[in-house]
């Protein structure tokens, strides 16, 4: 049994990332409060749960009171991001400034746009052309500006496309693994022969908790790339999955953003401006984080095995629920 110690670490957001961050904090014996707009069902033992909409500063301040660190993993549907994420970000930033907690922000590669896709580093220019990318870049700059002005203690951890247990709404998630396990065509996007980075969600959570717990203040006030294996082609990833499962994959590749599988028309209409990610090389480099924190990403084959195991259990539970 894990014994929780120390000050409270507050996790905002109950998606796959938020829940996996909670697991990582508990594994380190830390006291956890999990905040979500919706009710949190089946929370792990010992986790304090709070239902709150943190889009206003007052509610965010109340929900995060007494925090040592705040992990911002809140997301909203694509069609609401440009409108709602800046509002949420401002509220969370105000809460961190009020409490003095370290704010750890889970971030994306969107601010880079198509810049230097063969080796995306923390020094790659922010060259976003999409509405969502420009919004993220402006929001990220506001986080860093607040830190350097002394208004809050902030650090950003960027990840590539997620895969792993719990990850459903991803290009390497519910559109891929269930099809692989049931012999159906598995969805791929764009040019699957190009290198493309995929971040294993447990590695993302470990990296964010490293940022939230480090005593090295020089590590804050900046962007870090969270541990991610060097990019391989999605086609090569398919080959690895075939070796693990012993079954051949039939790929259904979309060369443009059209509704397919779990991605409906509204989603794809909103994702269209980001579809370039699957038409250019995208190799996110995480070597600085790995050196500084002595943290290595999970080998791709091990992450894929764990993800396949999770999806087998997930599909079995779905089948049992449908037949009950």
Automatic annotation (TrEMBL):
Limits of the NAD-dependent epimerase/dehydratase domain: 11-224
Top-level taxon: Bacteria
Name of the protein this chain belongs to: Nucleoside-diphosphate-sugar epimerase
UniProt source species: Actinopolyspora biskrensis
